[in-house]
Amino acid sequence: MTENARQATTPRLHIDWTRCDGRGLCSELLPQLLSRDDWGYPRSRDNSRETAVPGPVVKYARRAVARCPRLALTLVEDA
């Protein structure tokens, strides 16, 4: 894959619902992408299953993935 093709790929944020316990840290770290439902679980603001992470927000998404206490977040980047 060329460098231009790699840059054109938009990463997505995946939430593993079997691991998540609704602490809400991710929605605090990524308010641009996530909100919380009535029980405190994260939900994407665009209501998608895996929300797209725009370029300027990728570094914050990586930080949220690293800080998730239940390891429920993954940044999916297609190769």
Automatic annotation (TrEMBL):
It holds the Pfam family Fer4_15. This is Oxidoreductase. It comes from Mycolicibacterium aromaticivorans JS19b1 = JCM 16368. The lineage of its organism: Bacteria, Bacillati, Actinomycetota, Actinomycetes, Mycobacteriales.
